[in-house]
Specification:
With about 350 residues, the protein is mainly β. The protein is about 5% helix and about 40% strand. It has helices at about 5, 115, 140-145, and strands at about 15-20, 40-45, 55-60, 70, 75-80, 85-95, 100-105, 120-125, 125-130, 140, 150-155, 165-175, 190-200, 230-240, 240-255, 260-270, 275-280, 290-295, 300-305, 315-320, 325-335. Strands 2, 3, 6, 8, 9, 10 and 12 form a seven-stranded antiparallel β-sheet that branches. Strands 1, 4, 5, 7, 11 and 13 form a six-stranded mixed β-sheet that branches. A hairpin with a 2-residue loop joins strand 4 and strand 5. The longest helix has 7 residues, at about 140-145. It is elongated and about 70 Å long.
């Protein structure tokens, strides 16, 4: 994999710029408020065409510990959100000395249930930003990060170039839907935006500097009886409000209705509502497996296998019914005992316990 494809950007914690604070932040999906003094400004030279002077200046709108710019990179952090919270951030973009082309890209998303749920959209000078395919830059934070990983050229007010000395506002608006699980309140995520600028002068056909970037999935498949084991996994729950328990399952005992009987030690037990996520440690201080029972409403709903003799990875659904209700766990992310991320599985993949139904 090339250095560009690795997509690390080399950021430190101090480079984080807060995307959100609380529900009181103005600008939810209608345009963030402007007028605050610009703070935390950074000006840097980016003179790909060496004729004349040229520089690009980035600045965050709000004077906040959550807002910072470090050279060509702005990092947005979302934290302490509650369902229904909304707001936005604005980044001011100015080319100086000469007119310039400006490109924007995002770093690949890190696995995050919050990033998968948080809805954002990007606007430039009040107009919804389009990607290279002409699609609106909007959707979940994770989806937008993937959408812009190979860059998009910014065109203020339909112009080809940014006019020297004139600022444009890039607005990042967010909203956390009302129906997400309350467990996301204590989580956080971040997104990194990188800028590049070149002079328009003597540069009529600029080339996208980010075109070689991609979000290739760095993972290993969990398939085949090769001895690999699942160390931990995060699941999203769908179903009635209840307590979900994952427990060590037996390898042969079944109840009369064909469902497995839970006979082993509990891996986790947590109250959940639909949309909540739970994380289980299968191989930490205690080793469980190979069969795990999924219990809800004090009934064993299903059983799944945590060695790779059965498919396991993001996208796998573990589902069962009880008393007219459907209970489901969907794998959001998973790692094996080597600490390697497991690849996604097909939506039709089935995972069944050995010796059970």
């Amino acid at each position: 994999m090339s250095p560009k494809e690795s997509d690390s950007l080399g950021l430190s914690r101090r480079q984080i710029l807060g995307l959100v604070g609380s529900a009181g932040t103005a600008g939810a999906l209608t345009g963030a408020a402007t007028g605050a003094d610009l703070s935390d400004r950074e000006r840097f030279a980016d003179n790909s065409v060496t004729t004349g002077r040229f520089s690009l200046s980035l600045a965050c709108e709000r004077d906040s510990q959550n807002c910072s710019v470090d050279q060509r990179t702005v990092t947005l952090r979302a934290l302490e959100l509650k369902p229904g919270d909304s707001g936005g951030e604005t980044v001011s973009i100015t080319v100086e000395d000469n007119d310039g082309w400006v490109w924007l890209r995002t770093a690949c998303p890190e696995p995050s249930a919050l990033a998968d749920k948080l809805q954002i959209r990007l606007l430039l000078d009040g107009q919804i930003l389009k990607n290279a395919d002409g699609e609106d830059v909007a959707g979940s934070l994770s989806a937008v990060q993937k959408q812009l990983v190979d860059g998009v050229r910014l065109t203020p007010d339909g112009a080809n170039c940014f006019t020297a000395g004139e600022s444009s506002d890039l607005e990042i608006e967010y909203q956390l839907p009302d129906d997400v699980g309350s467990n996301l309140e204590d989580t956080e995520t971040n997104a990194r935006f990188q800028f590049h600028a070149e002079q328009c002068r003597h540069n009529a056909s600029p080339v996208n500097p980010f075109s070689e970037y991609s979000c290739e999935e760095r993972c290993v498949p969990c398939e085949g009886d090769d001895g690999d084991k699942i160390a931990r996994a995060t699941f999203e729950y769908e179903g009635p409000e209840t307590t979900v328990e994952l427990a060590q399952g037996s390898t042969s005992s079944n109840t009369q209705d064909g469902k497995r009987a839970s006979e082993g030690e509990s891996v986790l037990s947590e109250p959940v509502s639909s949309g909540d996520t739970v994380t289980a440690e299968f191989h930490g201080e205690t080793h469980y497996g190979p069969n795990i029972d999924f219990i809800a409403a004090e009934e064993t709903i299903a059983c799944f296998h945590i060695s790779c003799s059965e498919p396991f990875g993001p996208g796998l659904q573990i589902t069962g019914e009880h008393d007219g209700n459907t209970y489901s766990l969907t794998v959001v992310s998973a790692e094996d005992t080597d600490g390697t991320t497991l690849c996604s599985v097909d939506a039709s993949a089935k995972n069944r316990c050995n010796g059970g139904s």
